[in-house]
């Protein structure tokens, strides 16, 4: 029995296991106000780990590679690999430590950002040891190459739609978000990119490649208006941040930037080109969706 299938069966048998409990920014500030040590638990805010993620997808546990979550009916169920195995999100299985693909750890003082794997839209901001879960809105996806929310035409992530099945031979087809000529074949929870014969489009009606006139592919004709660019070094915020807690604020003079504050320390972060920061939703969005 494969590690992935074994992990799947284990997860389904343990559906009554612990539901995830993570702190939010208010809880963190309350702890610090009471003199309690700061928590390094993942700060969810009002987000849900398994929202917009297919059933039976396994998600990594931030801060402990031995643990993982099973998404069932929108709930995140905390599980654990048997010792000495570690969880690997790409293969959706518990593997030897030499094969494990663990999430980065949060630095005590540096800003680090990384994808919350298998979700396509979520990512983690780490600053002064506090991991904060973030989510791209409006159909945007997290681009690990730029550490920002980006248009799906630049990312084409489908991992959140590829779940483990009981039958390893039961395949799932997922259309590309970039090209009508491409699609992904999900087997054992792992997406593999496929390309139609030139001149044909993929169609979800038959999960096959057909003439364009017979395809239901409706990818927007918008060009890649977000150009790839290298990561930018974070800049110290030019505002006074609260002494405790995690906070996000709109930039005082720029629509495409915002402030990220943790325990009195602040940084100025940029949106991807073409996006503006929405202070109400606390995330970068397309300008037409931003509430000014």
UniProtKB/TrEMBL annotation:
PANTHER family: CHITIN BINDING PERITROPHIN-A, CHITIN-BINDING TYPE-2 DOMAIN-CONTAINING PROTEIN-RELATED. InterPro entries: Chitin-bd_dom, Chitin-bd_dom_sf, Chitin_bind-dev_reg. One of its GO terms (cellular component) is extracellular region. Gene3D superfamilies: Chitin binding domain. Residues 47-102, 103-157, 159-219, 238-292 form the Chitin-binding type-2 domain. It comes from Drosophila pseudoobscura pseudoobscura (Fruit fly). This is Chitin-binding type-2 domain-containing protein. GO terms for molecular function: chitin binding. Pfam families: CBM_14. Coiled coil: none annotated. Keywords: Chitin-binding, Disulfide bond, Glycoprotein, Repeat, Signal. The gene is LOC6900212. SUPFAM superfamilies: Invertebrate chitin-binding proteins.
């Amino acid at each position: 029995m494969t590690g992935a299938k074994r992990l799947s069966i284990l997860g389904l048998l343990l559906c009554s296991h612990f539901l995830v409990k993570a702190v939010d920014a208010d809880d963190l500030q309350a702890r610090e106000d009471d003199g309690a040590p700061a928590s390094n638990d993942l700060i969810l805010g009002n987000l849900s780990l398994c929202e917009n993620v297919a059933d039976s997808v396994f998600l990594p546990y931030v801060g402990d590679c031995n643990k993982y979550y099973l998404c069932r009916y929108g709930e995140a169920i905390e599980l654990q690999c048997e010792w000495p195995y570690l969880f690997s999100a790409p293969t959706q299985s518990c593997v030897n430590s030499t094969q494990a693909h663990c999430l980065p750890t949060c630095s005590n003082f540096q800003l680090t950002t990384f994808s919350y794997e298998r979700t396509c839209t979520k990512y983690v901001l780490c600053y002064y040891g506090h991991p904060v879960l973030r989510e791209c809105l409006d159909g945007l996806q997290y681009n690990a190459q730029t550490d920002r929310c980006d248009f799906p035409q630049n990312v084409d992530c489908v991992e959140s739609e590829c779940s483990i099945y009981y039958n390893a031979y039961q395949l799932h087809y997922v259309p590309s978000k970039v090209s009508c000529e491409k699609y992904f074949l999900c087997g054992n929870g792992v997406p593999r990119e496929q390309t139609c014969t030139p001149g044909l489009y993929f169609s979800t009606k038959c999960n096959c490649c057909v003439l364009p006139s017979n395809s239901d592919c409706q990818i927007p004709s918008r060009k890649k208006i977000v150009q790839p660019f290298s990561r930018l070094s974070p800049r110290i915020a030019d505002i006074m941040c609260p002494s405790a807690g995690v906070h996000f604020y709109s930039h005082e003079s720029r629509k495409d930037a915002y402030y990220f504050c943790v325990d009195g320390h602040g940084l100025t972060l940029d949106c991807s080109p073409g996006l503006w920061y929405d202070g109400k939703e606390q995330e970068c969005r397309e300008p037409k969706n931003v509430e000014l």
